[in-house]
Write a structure and sequence with these properties.
alpha/beta; pyruvate-formate lyase- activating enzyme; 3-stranded mixed beta sheet; 13 helices; binds iron/sulfur cluster
């Protein structure tokens, strides 16, 4: 992969460093180096496991998602990105030992053949933004094909997936887009694809025989949010076939308190981080519970009309919020099972593929 990436970047200066410690001296002022970090690629080897459970929190319901850490950081620059506080190398890191990743997946699947593995590459970066350089999805997608116990979620804010479309149909691949109203994308999700381009790409993926997912995360409160989110949901419903949607998640804006200062420094025109928030049991700042419930409830109502049958769930929310929004709380492990059933053949055979959200 390293050779492939270098071949696609002729003329870009290349420096071989002994290890990532060589980049450390640039770290003194985080706000200063974060923008520059978007212009440097660090090609390196993932020495630990690629797969790690999504970091759920004790007081919030977890969906049992598993993260494949194939990159760290991404070329886009969202003002709310939690990675700004997380990355410790001033670069976009790409882990190039793809063969180790495939071997690790084989070993995992062989060790637990009855488990449904929902795996995604979009937690520590963007699954598509670097793909023309990396070529990772072209390797991963056929690798997942014909493995009913494993599903790959390609989560992105990007839109260029034409080279991947001939690899469909493939029910083991879910193309997922993070969505927000067009004005939030313009103001806060710098260098990402516009809303219309994301939805057009989603329609292309569905036509090529892939499942889809959407993540309204973070949901951002601002004056006029109702109209902006309602029309975004309507646009989603008009451009994408509901029958292709595996799931839709909702997650209110949340971040560790120290990120607020960084957002103000890096994006002084941004207003959303100044909104009143409360410190939650996991230490993160969140909107007040009543506001979260209001936003989730309205979104659920609009989505039920625009994308009938799609499974809607809350990402990292408390049982009290679930109760208020859905009138019920999934039992331990039930949310993971509901999501598994959306993509596992046994769930489809049992007729569970679409109407499950009526239960919660
Ligand atoms: S696309 Fe995701 S990883 Fe990239 S800057 Fe935005 S939030 Fe961060």
């Amino acid at each position: 992969m390293a050779r492939r990436i270098l071949a696609r970047l002729p003329g870009v200066p290349v420096t071989v460093i002994p290890d990532r410690e060589a980049l450390r001296p640039a770290l003194a002022d985080r706000a200063a180096w974060l923008a520059a970090a978007k212009t440097t690629l660090l090609l390196t080897v993932q020495k630990g496991p690629f797969r790690r459970p999504c970091p759920g929190t004790r007081d919030y319901l977890c969906c049992g998602y598993q993260v494949l850490q194939v990159t760290l950081n991404c070329p886009m620059d969202c003002s709310y990105c939690v990675l700004q506080e997380y990355i410790n190398v001033p670069a976009i890191t790409i882990f190039v030992n793809m063969e180790d990743l495939l071997a690790e997946l084989e070993a995992d699947w062989a060790a637990a053949p009855d488990k449904v593995w929902r795996l995604g590459t979009g937690e520590f970066g963007d699954s598509l933004a670097l793909d023309e350089l990396m070529g990772l999805n072209k390797r991963l997608m056929p690798f997942f094909a014909g493995r009913p116990q494993a599903v790959l979620e390609i989560k992105t804010k990007w839109h260029r997936l034409e080279p991947l479309l001939p690899l469909g149909p493939n029910p083991q691949v879910v193309f997922a887009w993070s969505l927000n109203p067009a004005e939030i994308i313009r103001r806060e999700e710098h260098f990402s694809a516009p809303l219309e381009a994301r939805l057009k790409a989603a329609a292309q993926a569905a036509a090529a025989g892939f499942r889809l997912a959407f993540h309204f995360d973070p949901l951002i409160y601002f004056p006029g949010w109702e109209e902006a989110y309602r029309s975004t949901v309507e646009r989603l419903g008009s451009m994408v076939p509901s029958a292709a949607i595996a799931w839709i998640s909702l997650g209110g804006l949340r971040f560790l308190p120290r990120l607020r200062h960084l957002i103000h420094r890096r994006f002084p025109a941004s207003r959303f981080a100044a909104q009143e928030m409360v410190r939650a049991p996991d230490g993160k700042l969140r909107y007040f519970k009543d506001l979260r419930i209001d936003m989730y409830g309205r979104m659920r109502e609009w989505l039920s009309q625009a994308t009938p049958g799609a499974l809607i769930y809350l990402c990292m929310e408390s049982p009290r919020v679930w109760q208020a929004v859905f009138g019920g709380v999934p039992e331990e492990g039930e949310l993971a099972r509901l999501l598994d059933e959306r993509v596992h053949p046994s769930g489809e055979r049992a007729g569970l593929y679409f109407p499950t959200n009526s239960r919660i």
